[in-house]
Design brief:
The chain is mostly helical and 157 residues long. It has 8 helices and 2 strands. It has 2 domains: 82 residues, no CATH class; 73 residues, no CATH class. Helix 3 links the parallel strand 1 and strand 2. It starts with a helix and ends in a 12-residue tail after the last helix. 6% of the residues are buried.
Length: 157
């Protein structure tokens, strides 16, 4: 594995490739069991965005990990399975454009799903600043937008 060659001290607690499509309750329970029994402190989940972020949000309280991150295709890049853009393109911030050229189906996600979020970011920053000054948690702060909460889903506000 390329990652172990690059990072010899890396300890991988487990690997699992779930089936494509929506996860059934049984699949959810299987993944939660594998993760929680692995002893892992960090979870890097790469099943695609936003699926991975929603899954982490809904199951974080059962996983027993300190950190959970949805990484999308990053693992394929690190493992050497995806051809990266030339370094000069990476340095200019254009790797997303090369990835879109390689996988045209990403255009919808980049321009339809992700672009509107950029226009909302200034509002989230203002809401966060207001909530810090008032000492209350505003529902529009970035932590809530990203799905993080200290309470399990359905626990109320």
């Amino acid at each position: 594995m390329e990652l172990r060659r690059q990072y010899p001290r890396l300890r991988i607690a487990g690997l699992y490739s779930p089936p494509f499509g929506p996860f059934s309750r049984q699949e959810d329970d299987k993944m939660v069991g594998l993760i929680s029994s692995s002893g892992a402190r960090y979870l890097f989940m790469g099943v695609g965005s936003p699926k991975q972020e929603f899954w982490i949000r809904d199951h974080l309280h059962r996983l027993g990990v300190s950190v959970a991150v949805g990484v999308g295709g990053l693992l394929k890049c690190l493992a050497g399975d995806v051809k990266r853009a030339p370094v000069w393109v990476q340095n200019l911030g254009g790797e997303w454009l090369v990835r879109m050229a390689q996988r045209p189906q990403l255009a919808r996600r980049y321009f339809v799903d992700d672009l509107p979020v950029l226009f909302k970011l200034p509002g989230y920053k203002l809401a966060r600043e207001r909530s810090q000054h008032s000492g209350r948690q505003d529902a529009r702060t970035p932590g809530r937008v990203c799905g993080h909460t200290d309470r399990p889903p359905g626990a109320g506000a």
